[in-house]
Every structure is written in structure tokens, then in C-alpha cells.
Fold:
Amino acid sequence: MAYTTAQALRQNFLGNSPIWYKQAIIAFLIVNPILALYDPFVAGWVLVLQFIFTLAMALKCYPLQPGGLLAVQAIVLGLASPEMVFHEAEVNFPVIMLLMFMVAGIYFLREMLLYVFTKILLGVRSKVLLSLMFSFAAAFLSAFLDALTVTAVIITVAAGFYGIYHKVASGKKFDHDHDPTTDDQVVEVHRDDLENFRAFLRSLMMHGAVGTALGGVTTLVGEPQNLLIAEIMDWEFVEFFLRMAHISMPVLVVGLITCTLLEVTQTFGYGTRLSPRVREILEEFDHSMAENRTKSEKTIIIVQGFVALVLILALGFHLAEPGVVGLLVIVLATALNGVTEEHRLGHAFEEALPFTALLVVFFAIVAVIDHQGLFTPIIDWVRTYDGKTQEALFYLANGFLSMISDNVFVATVYISEIEELFLNGEIDRATFDALAVSINTGTNIPSVATPNGQAAFLFLLTSALAPLIRLSYGRMVIMAFPYTITMSITGLLALWFLGDMSPAPHGS
Structure:
């Protein structure tokens, strides 16, 4: 069948996305200029909702393309300017560097990570204990690394496990080439075990992803917005930790208790055990790798372990910006292990760069929010209250917006607005500090509710692993629900009753 140029354009627009999705995006692009002429404020809010829609439909189409079209149109319509977008990107340059280099750096530590996590998976037979270990390990690592880095780690590990079993389930040997994206070759006797293994990995990935939020809220390198807030507030690593501790520590405890209860009760998609057949195959793989591992391969694992230690120490002592440390990891891991070909280096950036581009699109939307003053009415309303009530409302407002939007740009907008109030002398330093804590915890804790709330969650949803283990947007929301309730309430209560335990105001 021969296509006309118009038909070809229609077919090519957003590729394999559903027809209804393409029509929705086109409708958005038609409606927005009309709304912009009528009322830029209304047009701005509609644009934000449209952008959130593209995030929610991430499995239908990667949000960069439709979200980017909306962002470009917003600039053309004058809802923001290119200079404003550049300013937002410039302010968030440490975050961009972190994404570009840190996630890529983890790629060159994957052999060591797979080795360590294989030992943990096979050594710990209790699913409850294993889930707790995944959650706590993710939380601990996220306190020193960023949540995106840790998510990249657990994605790498889970993809490795899945690939091993899927290969064997398809009747192949460990060293055979294999495409894990299709089940066409899966032997019938393995199909039930494969579905079981997918459910097993989904639960571990969600425990791990929530764990990154539990640990990510605690330190300035834990989440992208933490770094931004710390820069504005002039908080170093230790001070940031202490200011968050009265909220972050109770939330961590409650999060781990929730993890335990979910596995014990086997509710909300959790509780699936590793089947004996899958365990046998993974044990066989581990034994085979141990027997056939050469001196060179053993050395690679040791070197990667050393580089991982350097990474943790460098971030823990804040020796350099996280992005620079990520570049250090790439240089050390590749130079010491003989990875010198350009094409081998290129694979490391395949996951990170699309998300980096998407983050810059976020900043364009932030520029629109800032220029049109979309959050100003909410901020003005919250400011009518004082003290603990004001802090609690900031926590809830940020939490709610972060549930439906990305926590990075919610935090960016709110901290910018509060900074402006402080610089204009409308609030004192003590209030500035307290509200910054509310913003950080509000954007980190309740935001686990949806994939678009956490950059790490969105990274997981849009990763190559998600379709393999059948981890959809809706399934993530359901699995995150109990965590959302317990952690959000705990955070609010801790802010209200334990707020006086935070350090003295900056500079006092």
C-alpha cells in the first residue's frame, strides 16, 4: 500500500504510539494557542496538566517527545522565554551532570554488582529478609549516592537476573546470544515460573525503589532536588542530614516496617517467593561463572569494588560535585579495566541521556510555572498561616503536587519562590530554614505515590526492564499505595511533633 506524504507524516508522528494518544497530543497543540490568547495563566495550568499526562502515559510513548513538543510550543507562545529555560538548566547544572555521568558510571560497575547481589539473592532464602535487605540497602546507598544512581544499580541487577533465567527458559545455554524481550521461544514448562519470577522481581524492584526515597530524603546527594535546595540554603552534607533527621529517620523506620508487613501479608502485589526451579537455574549460573571466571574477570570485579568504595567516600565527604565524581568513576573503571573502545563507552550513556534530555524539558515547564506565577495563589494561601501550620501546609502542598507532577520541578519552583521572599525580607532565616525542610520532605516522601512523582520511579518505569517484568504505571501506583499512606502520615506527624528537635537556624 502506497502512502501519500500526509499519510506518511501521520503514521510517523510519535511512531508506534496508539492513535488515540497521537490525537490527544495534536488536540493539546491546537487548544494551547487559543487558551494562551484568552488567558496565559489558564494556558499555563492546562500545559502543566498536559505535561503530567505525558508522564503518566510513559509506557505508551517516552515523555521526551510529546512533552518536548508542548514545551517548545509554550516558548513560542511566550509563556516563557528561551533565556528562562537556559537559566533553569544552568541553576540545575549539577543535577544534569549527575545524570549524565553517575548513571553511566554505574554501568561500568555492573559485573561487581551482579556478583554481590547474586550472592545475596541466593544466600538469603527468606523473602521477607531479602526484601528488607533490598529496601535498606537502597536506602543506605541513596544517602550517599543519588536515588537515580541506586535505581540504575537495581535495574542492572534485576535485568541481569531476568536475562539469565529467560535465556535458560528459552532452551539456551548461559553463553548463548538471546533476545529477552520476546517469550516466543520460552519452553511451555517454564512459562508459569517465568510469570512467578516477574512478580518476584517486581516486588524487589518496588521495595528497592521505595528504599531510594527512604534514603534519598536524608542527604543532599540523595535526590536531584536535594542538591538544589542545599545549594540555595548553603547547607553542607552533615547539616543537611541533621536538619532532615527528625522527619527522615521515623519515616525510614516506618517504611521498613511497611516492607515487612507487605511481604508477610502478601498484599498489593508483594509476597511472591522465588520458585525452586528458578533458584536452581540461578545457582547453576553462579556455580558456572565461579568455575569459569578467569583471573582477568576476577580482577575486574575487585577493581570495580575499589572504584565503588572511592565513589562512596568521595560523595560521603563531598570531595566534589556528584556529577564530577561520576565522571571519575567512568575514568577509573574504564582505564583500570581496559575499556578503551568508543562504542563500548557509548552503551553506558544509553539509559542516562534520554532521561537527561527529559529533565531539561522539565525545566522548560518550570520556567512556564515561574513566569506565569502558577503556584503563587497556593503560596499566598499557605503564607496566611504561621508556624507549624504553615510548615505542615507546605509539606502537604508539595506532597500533593509531587504525587501528580515531578518532585524536581515542584521543589525547584517552591524553593525559588521562598528564596525570593527571604531575599525581599518578607520572612526571616529561621522560617526560611523550616520551610526548606518542609519542601524537601514534602517533595520526597508523598511523591512515591506515582511514577511521575519520583525521578527514580520514572527512570524505572521508562527503563528497558519495566516491560520485561510487566511493571506498568498502574501496577506501580497500586504497589506504592501502602507505602504512600504510612510514610506520608509519619512524615507529617514527625514534622508537627518533632520539629523542635531540628538544629538551630543557619548562622545563629
User: Anything to note?
Assistant: Residues 109-224+238-314 form one domain. The radius of gyration is 23 Å. The mean pLDDT is 84.
